[in-house]
Write a structure and sequence with these properties.
By secondary structure, the chain is α/β, with parallel strands linked by helices. The protein contains eleven helices and 13 strands. The chain has an eight-stranded parallel barrel, surrounded by five helices. The chain starts with a strand and ends in an 11-residue tail after the last helix. The model has no long low-confidence stretch (mean pLDDT 96).
Length: 344
Amino acid sequence: MKFLAITLIVHNDERSTTERFREVVDNAVLAEELGFDGFGVGERHERPFISSSPPVVLSHIAARTSRIRLFTAVTTLSLLDPVRAYEDYATLDHLSGGRLELIIGKGNGAAQAQLFHVTPDDQWERNREGYELFRRLWREDKVTWEGRFRPSLTDAETWPRPLQRPIRVWHGSATSKESVDLAAFYGDPLFSANVTNPIEPYAELIAYYRERWAAYGHDPADALVGAGTAGYYAARTSQEAIETYRPIFEARIALFRKVGVDPVFHTLEDAVERSSILVGSPQQIVDKVLRYHERFGHEVMHLHADADGLTSAQHRAALELFQSEIAPVLRKEIPSRPFPEVTV
């Protein structure tokens, strides 16, 4: 199994925006130091996030790191001009030495849809059309194309041409069968959000992905799945982990209620039992990931990159414990395919 650390760059405390960005970059450097396989930056265009420009943040991370894979989580193609998105990410592909992988999705959030004049009725179609054009731009030196949501192209050339030919693109999915079907159609990997709900709806989407994958004529053995987690904190004993993480979980529940969202899991004990949150001893976390793997068959998993209410020392200690006692077991128990290699 491979492990990513991902941030949406939530910013809702008293630190400056500059300090928060520096923390994100420092966390990416730490993730590489500790042995994580990838670091991801989400894309959101509304409060409380400041992740509106993943390629800029990832470019800075690329300059501070040398080995770790760089992910978007997710690139919201429904909101973007695919030509401009191509230019940004092809440039980043070179600057990172071919370490870039994209996770795309239609995104969510009413405010950002309003900002870009995207509606629930056309958001999915924008995502599909944007990806189809983006995919062609990455692969073809000249593109002639016509669609609904941007001006047509005639023998269009886009520069720079990318380093990775092609790049691997994952499709992020939380609830959408359309996104899952698009991934299966093109033979692309799927990344299940696996954050908000119990395991069942995510397992159903992954099963649908594998079904559609085979229906489109792909070898079932080639299907590739990743999955997220709703939070992480490990300590030597489950009692210590629960005691430390409880105030963090309760603060999250209070924030949900403040903004009018009814949480799916009302207690930490319920979340540990039924959600993807990983809180407990190393052995408890290994056992839980293996149970999820039985349903998902996933080879890649993400943890939150941010301290998320932990102190810096607690955050680092938990990540070190993950890499020393949890990751080695999971890497042995769950084989995973290597990341694409690029000769620069």
